[in-house]
Amino acid sequence: MNIPGRRPKTVDQFGESHNIGRSTVYEEKKRGRLKFTKVGRKSLIYPEDEDAWRELCRADEPNASDEKRLLEEVVVAEDVRDVIDIAKSFAKAIAKLPARKRDDLVERFSDLCAERTPNK
User: Fold this and answer.
1) Do residues 43 and 86 make contact, with C-beta atoms less than 8 angstroms apart?
2) Is 1 a member of any domain?
3) Of 48, 50, 57, 58, which has the fewest CB atoms closer than 10 Å, so is most exposed?
4) Domain co-membership, 14 together with 53
5) pTM of the model
6) pLDDT digits (tens, 9 = 90+) for 3-61
7) Nearest-CA neighbor of 25 among 6, 11, 36, 10?
8) Separation between Cα atoms, residue 86 and residue 101, nearest integer Å
9) Residue 52 is part of which domain span?
């Protein structure tokens, strides 16, 4: 389907428009989240495939309430095994994110934990 006014993008154009590198674009394709269409030697990403990818990213991205809930669970956990279970849930929640977003979220989560941890 052709969307008027929007043209297919090459891998480089797609990466530039979403501020991600080529390797991340290919990683998204490998995961099955982004569809490419080969035209000769070029890989093109059509607007409808770009829109579908954006929706997947929005659906997979943890929101602020998820962060707060996980943080509260860590703070009130009394047993080390509980903390380990929470950490596993957190790892699963962010596993599908691109590396840069995942690293940013882990850093933010660590900062929040450090702020909430009482000083000894």
Assistant:
1) no
2) no
3) 58
4) yes
5) 0.50
6) 567 899 999 999 999 999 999 999 899 888 899 999 999 999 999 999 999 888 876 66
7) 11
8) 20
9) 9-60
